[in-house]
Amino acid sequence: MSADIHTLAGAYALNAVDDLERAAFERHLTDCEPCRREVAELRETVARLADDTVVEATPPGLRERTLTQAARTPQLRSGAADDSARRQAGRWRRLTVAAAAAVLVAGGASAVTWTVSNDRISDEQASSAQARQIAAVLDAPDARVFERSLQPGGAATVVVSRDRDRGVVLLRDLPEPGPGRIYELWLIRGSEPRKVGRLAEGVRASTAVIGPIAEAGTFGVSNEPVGGSAAPTRIVGTVELS
Amino acid sequence: MPTMSGDPEQARRLRSVPPDTANPPSADELLSRVARGDEAAFAALYDAVAGRVLGLARRVVRDPAQAEEVTQEVMVEVWRTAGRFDAGRGSASAWILTMAHRRAVDRVRSEQAHTDRASRVAATESHAPYDEVVEDVTARLEREQVRRCLGRLTPVQREAVALAYYGGHTYREVAEKLKTPLPTVKTRMRDGLIRMRDCLGIEMEGRA
Lengths: 242, 208
Hints:
The complex is a heterodimer of chains A (242) and B (208).
Chain A: H1 2-6, H2 9-13, H3 19-30, H4 33-48, H5 60-72, H6 84-106, H7 129-139, E1 144-149, E2 155-161, E3 166-172, E4 181-189, E5 192-198, E6 206-210, E7 218-225, E8 235-240
Antiparallel strand pairs in A: 1-2, 2-3, 3-6, 4-5, 4-7, 7-8
Helix pairs in contact in A: 3-6
Chain B: H1 8-14, H2 27-35, H3 39-61, H4 64-81, H5 92-112, H6 137-150, H7 155-165, H8 171-178, H9 182-200
Helix pairs in contact in B: 2-3, 3-4, 3-5, 4-5, 6-9, 7-9, 8-9
C-alpha cells in the first residue's frame, strides 16, 4: 500500500489530487520521513513554476485593498514559534483534520464536504455547524490529541480542548457491532460514565463533537443494544484523556 | 542563461531580492515578523511575492478580476495564518505559492461544475506573454532558469506537469485528457518534478 500511495508524491505536490487522496497521502506522510523530505523538495520545486508567471506590475488598488483588509483581520494565535512541542501539536491537529476529512468523505456524510488543506481549514468551506464545531476544537490553542487502537479492531482519536470544553472524536474501522446493536460514546469521570453520543445502526466510523468535557478523564466506546443503555454494558475501548 | 548554468545555489541566494535594495530581508524573515503582527513587514512581503501570486492566479484562473480576488484572499490568509508557518517544512515563498495555487485551483474546479472548460485555453501553450517592462534582473534569471529546467523534462512529463499546475487539473483529469493510464500519469508527474528539482538544485538539507 505505501509503495503504491507514494507514487502520488508528484501529483500531491502539484495539488492535482482530490480531497480524499490528499488526506490519505498526508496520513502516509506521517509514517514516512523520507517521503516528507521528498514532498517538501517537490513543493519547493513546484513553487518555482510560479516564477514563470510573474506579473511585473500589480495593480496599486489591489495592494491597497489587501493591506487594508489585512489590517482589519485578526491573526490566528500563533502559539510559541520556538516551542517544538506546540509545533508538534499543530502538526497533529492538521493531520487529524485530514483524517477527519477522510472519514467524512468516505462516509459520504451528506452535505458535509469540506476541503482540508495542510495549512488551513477554510472558513467558507466549513459549511455545516458540525464542521465549524470541529474546527473550533481543532483550532483551540490547548487542543491535545489522544489516539488508541480499540480492542475488537478499529481506532479512536480524541482531540480535547479543555478551554472550549469540547472534544472531537474520530472513530474508524470499528467491527460490525452485530445484529440489533450499536456503538455508544461515553465520557467517564472516576467510575461515573456519562453518555455523549451514539452511532446509528450499521455505522462503524464517525466524527463526532462531544462535550462538555468537564472533569472527565476517559473517553469510552461501548457496544449496546439498539435502544441504547443507561450505562455502558460492553466497553470495547477507552482512551485516557491526559 | 550562461551566467546561471550550474550554480543553482546562487540562484537561490538571489531569489527574493527585490530591486533597488541592497540587503533586504528574505521572505522567511518578513513572514516571521508578519506572524508577530508587523504590518510594515506584511507590506514588504506583499511587494516581494504579490507579482508571483497574481501571475500564478492569472495563469490558472485566466480571468484577471478573479485572479486579483485570489491574490487578495491569499495574502490576507498569509497575514491571518502567518503564525502557523513552520520554517522546518519549507520556504516562506513555497508556503505562500502553495496556498495561492490551492486557492486558484479551487476556483477553477468549482467553476468547472457549471462551465465546460473547452473554451479555456489549453494549459500546454508555450509561455504566457509578460509585460515588457524593465524587469528585475534576478527575477528574469530565475524565470529563465525555470524555463531551462522545464525544457529538460521529456515532452510527456512537461505536458503532465503543465496541465496539472498551470491548468489546475487533477491527475485523473490529466489521464483522461491524454488518454493515458493513471499510473503512467502519476509517474510522469513525479519523475518530471524530480528532474526539475535536480535541475534547480533544490535540496532540503536540515529542513524536511
